[in-house]
Amino acid sequence: MTSIAVALSVDSRGPSALYILTDSRITWGPKDRWEGGQKAFASRRFPDVFGYFGDAYFPSMMLRQLIEQLDSGLVCRDEASADERHEAILQVMKVAMSRTSGRPPITNFTIFHGSRMSHEMQSRFSVWESCFNAATLQWTDVEHDIVKDGSYLILAGGTGSIYVNSSKEEWEKSPAAGTSRSTVWAFFDAIRSTFDTLSGANPQIVGIWRIGPARTFGIHWNDVPYFAGLRVSGGLSSEQVRWFDSDFEPCDHLGRRLKPEKAHLKPDIDVIEALRKRHVRPR
Questions:
Q1: pLDDT at position 52
Q2: CB–CB of 36/96 below 8 Å?
Q3: Rounded CA gap, 269 and 79, in Å?
Q4: Measured between alpha carbons, how far is 120 from 210 in angstroms, rounded to an integer?
Q5: Residue 164: domain span
Q6: Do 193 and 163 meet the contact criterion of CB atoms below 8 Å apart?
Q7: Among 15, 55, 93, 216, which residue has the fewest nearby CB atoms (within 10 Å)?
Q8: Residue 174's Cα: distance from chain center in Å?
Q9: Is the per-residue pLDDT at 283 higher than 60?
Q10: What is the three-state SS of the chain?
């Protein structure tokens, strides 16, 4: 289940942001689903973001518990490095998954952890991939190398990863290649294509900028506001929430672009049709 991707944003001064993007669909079977599951998480105290794919239940519950402890100062010191935070976070996850008995219905899952060390122009971003094997109850943990000379999709995972990667390749041929918005457009187009039936609904975005803790971003998808995977139905606004529209342009809680005169022109390319030719066989 799931489409998930990690994207690095680089501006003229160097790496400026790290984003984790996921879809919001939880599935039990071909037609049994929930279109509002949270799959991307952000700390409000530290520059750390998380996303997962695989088992639909345990990682979501565990990550919410982890962030409660992390934001309460119970996992690591405020001055801990990104490496130290990751080791402490991994230990919390290992302890959490050791608290099972009998034969719990756990399947394999993978957690992406994005982090930042230092801040402003000294910022250094990191990404780890931590995998839990349900058969052996063992973890594997890998840190991914990050190329810092341009914006790009660092990695993708989940059942929809083949479409995310193909969409990325199509956008790399466009005039927008090498921009952070093209990496997000690639992910959005993979979701819009609906080719992966286990991925869908609205995207979710969490991210880390050069300054401050991580953020959960609101998104206006098909003119409907969503936050943390769930539709916002209260009609209220919050100055703490930053919003993007379906073209990854900054907007307000009503979906109105903040600076429409500075909006990036999206190249007119039909990525979904290109994906169809790549992956959908004629009957």
A1: 98
A2: no
A3: 46
A4: 5
A5: 4-279
A6: yes
A7: 55
A8: 23
A9: no
A10: CCCEEEEEEEECCEEEEEEEEECCCEECCCCCEECCCCCEEECCCCCEEEEEEECCCHHHHHHHHHHHHHHCCCCCCCCCCHHHHHHHHHHHHHHHHCCCCCCCCCCCEEEEEEEEECCHHHCEEEEEEEEEECCCCEEEEEEECCCCCCCEEEEEECCCHHHHHHHHHHHCCCCCCCCHHHHHHHHHHHHHHCCCCCCCCCCEEEEEECCCCCEEEEEEECCEEEECCEECCCCCCCCCCCEECCCCCEECCCCCECCHHHCCCCCCCCHHHHHHHHHCCCC
Q: List pLDDT tens digits, range 236-270.
A: 778 889 999 999 999 999 999 998 888 888 999 99
Residue 105 has pLDDT above 70, yes or no: yes
Average pLDDT estimate for 208-233: 96
What CATH number should be reported for the domain holding residue 205? 3.60.20.10
The one-letter amino acid code at 247 reads D
Encode pLDDT of 123-164 as tens digits. Answer: 999 999 999 999 999 999 999 999 998 999 999 999 999 999
- Residue 40: what residue type? A
Reported confidence tier of residue 281, pLDDT bands at 50, 70, 90? low
pTM over 0.90: yes
